């Protein structure tokens, strides 16, 4: 990769929360080498004059399913892993073209898909994968209908979301197996959800002792646990067990919020998936029998975000879209704008995700030593968050790890 100097730009400092005029950034290989308010010279480095445009860090999404190629998970379970990978490649490319340079996959992706992206075989954001979410029998990760005794495939494969485990011995073994396969974090299903056939949304799943065992395995491997949890009962249990990241949380209450903040945990609401399931679920192939649960959760999504924001929670950006609804990923910015200021939302998709992912200083900032994950915006996203909602029009350049993936600068 050649060296590049991005000159004459407004730099969005995500840590200070302000635009810095007349800045210059030197990129060498996959990393940022230097940031200055004075012109930089670096030998044979190519100069890219941004003519006053905004240069900001690449975005992160803390909750995606890159292998959720259909809105009906039962269909995915019967697909060839090779076919799933081919379709996931399209989803990954589209995410990168929206400015997302790092994503945390919340079940389905595996080490092979992450490696293919890392090696440049597939264009896409870097993938922090959990492998398969751990679920109790009949829990949110158990996609079998009541007439099915066995899974369509005997062992979890790419695209399969859940791994079933019950009791302390099984949950420890399952966590260890996912970690053996390189999982950068472990995911558990702590409550019911919309897209599962056998559980109620407000059911609690896994005992406190089972969760504590999983957390202990993750911590021994120097990583953490994220938990699908819609209700306060499930959230409180997960937080008491040491879970670091609460996903969705649509039915969270003040008790759970107080504990979330006290524990220093992260909250990852996913407004856009419930919004789009309500609008487009049926035409996208989402099972009709699940639609009522999704609609009920959608009613509470914005209120949960507002309560967490007022409580001062650490709120990371996440979307959780599936099937053809992936194309609405950037709409999450607009939905959050009902509650949060643009800076809060941008920080949630940059430095907050970096902290959650244990990648502080490596992503989400424009600073020496960070990955050269950069996007060029035609305008000021702090004043107009709509610029990020229309990336095709307003993102002129997208750089990931020092490699240009999109460039429409004149």
Structure summary, number of beta strands: 18
Structural class category: alpha/beta
CATH topology of the largest domain: TIM Barrel
Q: How many helices does DSSP assign? A: 14
Gyration radius over CA: 21 Å
Using the 3D structure, state the CATH architecture of the largest domain. Answer: Alpha-Beta Barrel
Name of the CATH class of the largest domain: Alpha Beta
Task: Tell me the number of structural domains.
Answer: 2
Distance between the termini: 21 Å
How much helix, percentage-wise, in residues?
25-40%
Largest sheet: 8 strands, mixed
Overall pLDDT metric: 93
Summarize the structure.
The protein has 410 residues and is an alpha/beta fold. The chain has helices at 73-76, 81-97, 111-118, 167-180, 208-220, 232-241, 254-263, 271-284, 291-311, 331-336, 342-348, 351-356, 386-389, 391-394, and strands spanning 4-13, 18-28, 31-36, 46-49, 54-57, 59-64, 100-105, 126-129, 133-135, 162-164, 186-189, 225-231, 245-251, 266-268, 314-315, 374-377, 395-400, 403-407.
């Amino acid at each position: 990769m050649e060296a590049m100097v991005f000159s004459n730009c407004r730099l969005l400092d995500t840590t200070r929360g302000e635009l810095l005029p007349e800045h210059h950034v030197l990129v060498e290989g996959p990393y940022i080498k230097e940031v200055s308010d004075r012109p930089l010279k670096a030998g044979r480095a190519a100069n890219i004059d941004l003519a006053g445009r905004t240069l900001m860090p690449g975005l992160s999404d803390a909750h995606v399913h890159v292998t959720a190629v259909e809105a009906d998970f039962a269909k995915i379970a019967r697909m060839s892993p090779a076919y799933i990978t081919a379709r996931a490649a399209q989803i990954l490319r589209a995410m990168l073209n929206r400015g997302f340079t790092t994503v945390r996959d919340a079940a389905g992706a595996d080490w092979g898909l992450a490696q293919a992206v890392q090696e440049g075989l597939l264009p896409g954001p870097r993938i922090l994968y959990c492998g398969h979410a751990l679920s109790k029998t009949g829990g949110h990760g158990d996609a079998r209908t009541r007439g099915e005794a066995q899974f369509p495939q005997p062992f979890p494969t790419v695209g399969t979301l859940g791994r079933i485990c019950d009791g302390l011995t099984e949950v420890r073994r399952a966590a260890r197996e996912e970690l053996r396969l390189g999982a950068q974090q472990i995911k558990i299903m702590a409550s019911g959800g919309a897209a599962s056939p056998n559980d109620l949304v407000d059911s609690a799943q896994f005992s406190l002792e089972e969760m504590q065992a999983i957390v202990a395995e993750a911590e021994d491997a120097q990583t953490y646990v994220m938990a699908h949890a819609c209700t306060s009962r499930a959230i409180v249990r997960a937080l008491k067990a040491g879970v670091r990241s609460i996903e969705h949380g649509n039915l969270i209450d003040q008790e759970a919020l107080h504990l979330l903040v006290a524990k220093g945990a992260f909250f990852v609401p996913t407004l856009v998936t419930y919004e789009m399931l309500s609008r487009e679920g049926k035409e996208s192939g989402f099972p009709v029998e699940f639609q009522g649960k999704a609609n009920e959760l959608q009613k509470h999504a914005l209120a949960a975000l507002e309560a967490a924001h007022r409580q001062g929670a650490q709120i990371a950006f996440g979307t959780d879209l599936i099937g053809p609804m992936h194309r609405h990923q950037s709409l999450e910015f607009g939905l959050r704008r009902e509650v949060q200021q643009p800076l809060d939302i941008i920080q949630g998709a940059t430095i907050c995700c970096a902290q959650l992912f244990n990648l502080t200083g490596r992503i989400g900032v424009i600073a020496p030593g960070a990955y050269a994950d950069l996007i060029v915006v035609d305008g000021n996203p702090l004043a107009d968050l709509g610029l990020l909602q229309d990336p095709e029009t307003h993102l002129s350049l997208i750089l990931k790890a020092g490699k240009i993936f999109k460039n429409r600068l004149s």
